Amino acid sequence: MKPVYLCGRGLACALGLNLGQSLAALRQGDVTTGSRFLHGAMGGHFPYQSIPFQMNDWNERACELVQRVASEAGAQNAKHGALFIATSSFDIGAVEQGIAQINYDTFANKVAAWLEWTGPVYVISTACTSSLNALIAAHALLGTGEADEAVVLGFELDNKLTLGGFAAMQLLSSSSSKPFATHRDGIVLGEAVTCLRLSTSERSDWKILGGANVVDGSQPTGASVSAIVSMYQRALATSGLTADNIDLIKVQAAGSPGNDAIEAQGLRAAFGKLPMLVSLKAAIGHTMGASGAAEIALLSTCLEQGAWPRYADHADETLGVELIPQMPESVRHIMATILGFGGSHATVVLEHA
Amino acid sequence: MSTFAISGRCIAAPPPPDWCARLALLLGAKPRRIGTWAELGLYGALHCMADAGESTLPQDAILMLASRRGTYAATGLVLEQLREDLPMPLAFLQTQPGQLLALLAAQMQWSGHACFFASTAHHALLRLAAAQSGSGGVLLGWVDEMEGGSTNWLRLRLDAAAGINFVPATSDLEIFSPAVSHIAIDATHLQVAYATK
Questions:
Q1: What pTM did the predictor assign?
Q2: Is the CB of residue A113 less than 8 Å from the CB of residue A105?
Q3: How near does any CA of chain B get to the CA of A174, in Å?
Q4: Is the Cβ pair B132, A137 closer than 8 Å?
Q5: CA separation (Å) from A172 to A66, A113, A292?
Q6: How many other CB atoms are found less than 10 A from the CB of residue B196?
Q7: pLDDT digits over A137-189, tens only?
Q8: Which of A88, A127, A140 has the CB atom closest to B131's CB atom?
Q9: I need a surface site. Which of A6, A249, B22, B66 has the fewest CB within 10 A?
Q10: Cβ neighbours of residue A56 closer than 8 Å, sequence gap 6 or more
Q11: Do residues A29 and A230 touch, judged by C-beta distance below 8 A?
Q12: Which residue, A43, A350, A68, A30, is CA-closest to A211?
């Protein structure tokens, strides 16, 4: 396998329209949670973390955000490579506005046209793990020499379908995301558009070593301990590492009462001595299909430039795991994990030079 | 150039009129509230596995599923429900194409790498399958609900294919021909080999 490097990053999320703004907001603890309203007897106001950039036309807004993050990541240098669009909701917001129809090829062509893309285009949709699966696929394509450049575009924008679905399943918090915390009461959905540019011909300080995705059908709406353990074991094997090589894990920890507990159990089972743990959900919300790539973009920038998320709530000691309150002094190997809907469990291993 | 041997297939475009009854026979019961698209996927995938003589996938196999419009019918229904109130939870689950991956994994009592692709690009998907699959091969399917439905599946294993005579495929859809025994793929070309009598 050829070594695959993470050579460019772009992110628009609730913290800001680029990584610079996002880091500044994170340092200042400037994390704001807005809300969205849904009609009906079961409806109401639900917390939501939007990108601070408003336009009425869904397509125009999406195009602007995609072009911004692609430019930030230097994606123009990779237009002949493979484009992996990762999303759980496609352009359903445009469908809700009556300006698009549900057709995946049309959606892929639309996004590719925004980027003037000339290479092959893949659209991956595995709910919350979409962009980690896109990263795993891109890593395989580049590592085997099938391509030398690839871009992963994580894409999750405002729509009623996702928010309404999660509200219907009573998975949403009433206030804010509290990862691994005593008073956690559900997840907070958020928006993100993010771009990761990968290359085998250009080097960077971040190398992608491998990853694993394990789909387990036993828990269709949540995680399972055995699948979490299997995911970490497979990811370590593909990366040529052992558990004690891992310094830091960016966990899923979205603040769900049940899933956070299962994740904690899985972590304890997979690692004899737990690596340091970090969660970014309280800062940007759960950005669904974009979350894996968005959190890698944010975390890797945090580690380079010195910023760290704050956790306002008391840790739930019964979980037997805890998030580290300050940035570690040095980190070489990190894992970035998303546990998703549809029984999908994914993690990617990165090495920092 | 990567080459795959086809060890099983289900080509059903459209599926037979009694496909729902046949699926219930395969599952041992009528599936409940998973949606027509997921039912079509289960029908094709399980027939393909039976054709390959397998009841489950090896641990290192991968499952790849693709579609042109996926769960559009279920999604349309939920959008209608949202005009009045929150959707029904199971109706929302039916909008998530990844649910079919979990259903298949559960049915085969298997867990492993599975992924949904919103695409009909056969060549691109086969290239990725070649890059990602190990010795356990790949179960690869294209499922759509429009125009009477279609559920086309191939069970593929990487194969050296020594001495096999490949010819350029006249179209991507030639991979579904019942007489094709092998597929060869590189960055620009798709080739097929026909079974010798």
A1: 0.97
A2: no
A3: 16
A4: yes
A5: 27, 35, 19
A6: 7
A7: 999 999 999 999 999 999 999 999 999 999 999 999 999 999 999 999 999 99
A8: A140
A9: B22
A10: none
A11: no
A12: A350
